[in-house]
Automatic annotation (TrEMBL):
<dbReference type="InterPro" id="IPR012337">
    <property type="entry name" value="RNaseH-like_sf"/>
</dbReference>
<dbReference type="GO" id="GO:0003676">
    <property type="term" value="F:nucleic acid binding"/>
</dbReference>
<protein>
    <submittedName>
        <fullName>Cell wall enzyme ebsB</fullName>
    </submittedName>
</protein>
<dbReference type="InterPro" id="IPR036397">
    <property type="entry name" value="RNaseH_sf"/>
</dbReference>
<feature type="domain" description="RNase H type-1">
    <location>
        <begin position="1"/>
        <end position="128"/>
    </location>
</feature>
<dbReference type="InterPro" id="IPR002156">
    <property type="entry name" value="RNaseH_domain"/>
</dbReference>
<dbReference type="GO" id="GO:0004523">
    <property type="term" value="F:RNA-DNA hybrid ribonuclease activity"/>
</dbReference>
<dbReference type="Pfam" id="PF13456">
    <property type="entry name" value="RVT_3"/>
</dbReference>
<dbReference type="InterPro" id="IPR053151">
    <property type="entry name" value="RNase_H-like"/>
</dbReference>
């Protein structure tokens, strides 16, 4: 099983944004930070979520059970309900649905911020680095 932890950081809302991704699996522990451009904090959470899934596919790690953790209730609820009330989030949901078909089994789980410190730290470091 591959576990993914994602989080985003934004300076301002909207403002410059960055994300942190932690991949944990058998003999794997990788920490990645990414720049996400100018966006709102919720958009940044969606962007890092999508980026993490794209990275897993690029690394050919999607043929196993994948559990992705996010502390964003908006992202997790949108994915679970398969519906985005906010039209700005609809393209992210659509992209997720396209990517989901590339996975053997993909599970999404909300975690409290206290259980997502690694990804949070990476996101904050990335935000500071890219400014």
């Amino acid at each position: 099983m591959l576990r993914i932890y994602v989080d985003a950081a934004t300076k301002g809302n909207p403002g410059p944004s960055a994300g942190g991704i932690v991949l944990v699996g058998d003999r794997l522990h990788e920490q990645i930070h990414v720049q996400l451009g100018e966006c709102s904090n919720h958009e940044a959470e969606f962007k890092v979520f999508i980026k993490a899934l794209q990275l897993v596919i690029e690394k050919d790690l999607n043929e196993q059970t994948v559990l992705i953790h996010s502390d964003s209730k908006i992202v997790v609820q949108t994915i679970e309900k398969r519906h985005a009330k906010n039209p700005i989030f609809q393209p992210y949901l659509y992209t997720f649905q396209q990517l989901e078909s590339s996975f053997q089994l993909l599970l999404v789980k909300w975690v409290p911020e206290s259980q997502n410190k690694g990804a949070d730290t990476l996101a904050r470091q990335a935000l500071h680095k890219y400014q």
